[in-house]
Amino acid sequence: MENNYFVIGGHNVCISFVDTTVNSMKLLPAFAPFRADKKPEQLFFTLTVDDSLRPRKDRNLVRKFDTGNGDTLVYQLSDGGYQYIIRDVFNRDCCLLIANKHFTDCACALNGDWTMRSFGLNDALMLIYAFAGSFCQTMLIHASTIMIKDADGQNWGFPFIAKSGTGKSTHSSLWMQHIEGAQLMNDDNPIIRIADDHSVYIYGSPWSGKTPCYRNIKAHLGAITRIDRAPQNSIEKLAPVQAFASLLPACSSMKWDEQIYSNLCDALTMIIETTPIYTMHCLPDKEAAELCHHTIAR
Question: Which of 139, 145, 246, 271 has a beta carbon 3.0–4.6 Å from 185's, enabling a disulfide?
Answer without folding.
Answer: 145
